[in-house]
Amino acid sequence: MQKPELKTIWGIVIPAVWNEIGDVVSVAIADYGEEKYLVTDNEAGRKLLSLLRKRVVVDGIVKKQDAVQVIDIKEIRLD
Fold first, then answer.
1. Core-most of 13, 17, 24, 43, by most CB within 10 Å?
2. How is residue 2 annotated by DSSP?
3. Please, what are the averages of pLDDT over each run of 10 residues along the chain (79 residues)?
4. pTM, rounded to two decimals
5. DSSP state string for 3-67
6. What span, in angstroms and rounded, lies between the C-alpha atoms of 72 and 37?
7. Pick from 19, 11, 78, 71: which is nearest to 50 by CA?
8. From CA 38, how far away is CA 15, in angstroms rounded?
């Protein structure tokens, strides 16, 4: 199991999960190296919903769950 680590990621906010009427309810960060990080559902993660398709720099704790990288965001900045 991979140890959680604090990382800074530069990338684009992309939709990850939609509800039954097609609204985006969860996002991910696609970094410039083509890695994808699913954003945890917390206050910082919900702020990213308003930044869909924007370039951002985020700091957070990254863990691997199954084959998915998940980030618990601590800080968000526009790139």
1. 13
2. P
3. 82 96 95 94 91 96 90 94
4. 0.89
5. PPEEEEEEEEEEEEEE-TTS-EEEEEEEETTS-EEEEPSSHHHHHGGGGTT-EEEEEEEEEEETT
6. 10
7. 78
8. 10
